[in-house]
Design brief:
601 residues; Beta-Lactamase; 8-stranded mixed β-sheet; globular; 3 domains; 5-stranded antiparallel β-sheet; 47% helix; single chain; alpha/beta; Rossmann fold
């Protein structure tokens, strides 16, 4: 296995070669090696996601630019030379991915990625990859071996035997090993675990990582329900269970030590524990209870604002309800990443406009049952689910409102409905059918690389999305969020609002509650040509789009409006990016209200 530790000189030469020629051949050595290093790094160190995306963007953009003159194919950026590396890194993601809790909130996963030392050892005892924390804590350099770790003799010998066993094709994989080493920077003894990771092609390596307490999905629920703790207090409980001190927790959370100590005192008061060791024992008992009584279900409890629609094939579809009960019906199709967050932002306005928002969750989102059918037909199947809901609930002549990626589902539902059943469709910052690669050119870097991957290298898409999810689940939610809008100056002031940030981040958790599948399906639809759904109906369409939308260029939306000019109205919002619904909700709700009133007239 190659040594994939970062080599700045090699990266610089690769970048220079790419700039000079811009061809796949020029990036087939240095730049490719740099990308391979980033693939493994993101699998083990989730906060390097931005670095991985930058390198993958350079690789995939060069490949697309080279191939785009010919016929478009979904394998234009096929990566056979990278497949083995993606397979092994995917295995590492599976091994280290923190699970969501039962209510869709992701745990902080103490010790699983925030600065924890990690390295990979091959069958020869050579350390073939290590992160920055391991470099610092063990003094690792290129060519380091097990001897470099500075272990006690007995621990070193067991690890050497474990590595040698990788070369044997006989017998079961070696059992995990636990060893202790003293960190020079703190003087503390820290326990590490060494275990074998096996990728699908059969390659085996040893993953060495700090031994940390598990935090099963149900622990947060137990603590919240029985001790009335806040999310911040629950987060601190995870670190305490992992043996972290107040000063370490403060550093990890970016808070003052005094603040953390006050929060620990509050935790001890709520749990009626008199000393921190007693608190640690209680937390580990709660971990054991959660492990003995696992609850892997995502629960939906019906109430005034939530219903569960039972579908004919046995699946169920959660439906949120917002606005006055007697309000005019609007079927809201949520975005790919922000879920129902926009509705939280305009709750009070729904009464003013007399609108009742009915909001079905697509399969794989939040607590919605999954749809295991072929991805190619998922859009049509969801449209049928919504039509079934309209019929069963006797919802007559609603307006369909598609937000961002949800606009595609709105168009599919309009096409599936009977003639006259739908009054019209409003699309806010919505996508349009992708007719050619040129429509990707105006996207921001992060959006474009996802789009290129979904359209031209779909086999890599699950890894890319799961790596992003892992960044979010290990304390990088805001970093992930800001990366989407860092090059959209009109959106930055909106997303900088703490209330908007919290609502959007809750939407992210809604999207990834069941993993990457919801994100993957929507990504594939967004980059496709779904014109057939638009052309299957003659209903009126109102497009509301920001002048500087960083994902769907206004020019593409204007082209769409011209193609269907006989029934399409376009409202351009100047000085606005993608976040129209958060910045100007009155514009959206007024358009919906007008469409309802015009239909009646």
């Amino acid at each position: 296995m190659t040594d994939f530790h970062n080599d700045p000189a090699r990266e610089a030469s690769g970048a220079a070669a790419a700039e000079q020629t811009g061809t796949p051949d020029s990036t087939s050595t240095a730049a490719r090696d740099s990308l391979i290093e980033a693939i493994y790094r993101i699998a083990l160190d989730p906060q390097t996601y931005d670095t991985f995306m930058e390198r993958w963007d350079g690789y995939v953009t060069t490949r697309v630019a080279h191939e785009i003159g010919g016929t478009e194919r979904t394998d234009m950026t096929a990566t056979p030379e990278l497949d083995t590396h993606f397979a092994l890194a995917s295995k590492l993601l599976d091994e280290t991915m923190p699970p969501p809790t039962v209510d869709g909130q992701e745990p902080a996963a103490p010790g699983a990625g925030r600065g924890a030392a990690r390295c990979l050892i091959d069958e020869h005892g050579v350390i073939v990859w290590y992160n920055t924390a391991a470099e610092r804590q063990f003094g690792l350099r290129r060519g380091a071996t097990i001897d470099t770790l500075g272990l006690e003799e007995a621990h070193r010998d067991r690890l050497i035997e474990m590595a040698a066993a990788l070369a044997s094709s006989h017998g079961s994989p070696p059992r995990p090993q636990i060893f202790t080493t003293r960190l020079s920077e703190t003087g503390r003894d820290v326990h590490f675990q060494a275990r074998v990771i096996t990728e699908t092609a059969g390659t085996e390596v040893i993953l060495v990582t700090r031994l940390s307490a598990s935090w099963p999905a149900g622990v947060a629920t137990l603590i919240r329900e029985n001790f009335a703790m806040t999310p911040s207090e629950i987060d601190i409980c995870e670190w305490i269970a992992d043996g972290r001190t107040a000063s370490q927790i403060a550093e990890l959370r970016g808070a003052s030590v005094a603040t953390v100590r006050t929060q620990i005192k509050n935790i001890m008061a709520k749990t009626r524990t008199s000393a921190q060791p007693e608190l640690v024992r209680l937390l580990h008992l709660l971990i054991r209870i959660s492990e003995d009584n696992p609850d892997h279900s995502l629960r939906v409890v019906e109430g005034p604002g939530l219903r569960r629609v039972e579908l004919r094939d046995g699946r169920s579809m959660p439906v949120e309800l917002h606005g006055p009960e007697g309000g005019d019906p609007v079927i809201f199709f949520h975005g790919m990443l922000d879920g129902m967050a926009a509705l939280e932002h305009c709750r009070d306005l729904l009464t003013q406009y007399n609108l009742r928002f009915i909001c079905p969750a697509r399969p794989w989102f939040g607590a919605a049952d999954p749809d295991h059918g072929p991805m190619a037909g998922s859009l049509d199947r969801f449209a049928q689910d919504v039509c079934e809901m309209l019929k069963d609930r006797n919802l007559r002549s609603p307006v369909l409102l598609g937000h961002m990626a949800g606009a595609i589902s709105a168009h599919a539902t309009a096409a599936a409905a009977n003639s006259g059943d739908i009054r019209g469709l409003v699309s806010v910052s919505g996508g349009v059918p992708i007719l050619g690669a040129g429509q990707f050119a105006s996207m921001t870097t992060r959006q474009r690389v996802v789009a290129y991957t979904a359209r031209y290298s779909p086999r890599v898409l699950p890894f890319l999305l799961r790596a992003g999810i892992r960044q979010m689940r290990t304390g990088g939610e805001r970093k992930f969020l800001m990366s989407l809008y860092e090059n959209s100056p009109d959106d930055l002031p909106v997303i900088a609002d703490p209330d908007v940030q919290d609502m959007v981040l809750n939407g992210y958790r809604f999207t990834v509650a069941q993993g990457h599948r919801a994100f993957e399906i929507d990504s594939r639809h967004v980059v496709g040509n779904w014109s057939r759904h638009v052309e299957a109906t003659e209903m009126p369409i109102h497009l509301i789009h920001g002048e500087s939308d960083p994902v769907v260029a206004l020019s593409s939306v204007e082209d769409f409006a011209r193609r269907y000019h006989n029934r399409t109205q376009l409202t351009r919002i100047d000085g606005t990016g993608q976040l129209i619904f958060y910045k100007s909700p009155e514009v959206v709700l007024s358009a919906v209200r007008n469409m309802l009133d015009l239909a009646r007239a």
